[in-house]
C-alpha cells in the first residue's frame, strides 16, 4: 500500500509543474472541479463521497489521496465512506454484467459453424 500522506505531498508539486507547462489545462480542470461548489445543490461531504466512489471506479490513486483528506475535512465518517465505496463496487459489478451481455450479443452474431 501507499504512504498516502507522502503521496499527497508529492502529487501537488507535480501537478503544479504540469500547470506551468500547460496553464489552460490546469485552469480548465480547476473550473470543472470547483463548479459544484458554486451551485450549492450538494454539500461538500456528499460531493467528496461521490468523488471517492468515482476515484475507485476510475482507479485514480491521486484522486483517492486528495479526496480522502477532503472527505475527512468535510466530516465524512469511515462508515459513510464505506457505504459510498459499496456503491462503487456495485456499479463496477453492474458494468461487468452489462458488458458481459454485450459479449454474449457479439457471440450470437458470429457466423454459424
From TrEMBL:
Q: Name one Pfam family in it.
A: CMD
What are the protein's GO molecular function terms?
A: peroxiredoxin activity
Sorted alphabetically, the keyword list is: Oxidoreductase, Peroxidase
Q: Which Gene3D superfamilies match?
A: AhpD-like
Q: Which residues form the Carboxymuconolactone decarboxylase-like domain?
A: 23-105
Q: Give the InterPro entries listed for this entry.
A: AhpD-like (IPR029032), AhpD_core (IPR004675), CMD-like (IPR003779)
Q: Which domain of life is it from?
A: Bacteria
Name it. Answer: Alkylhydroperoxidase
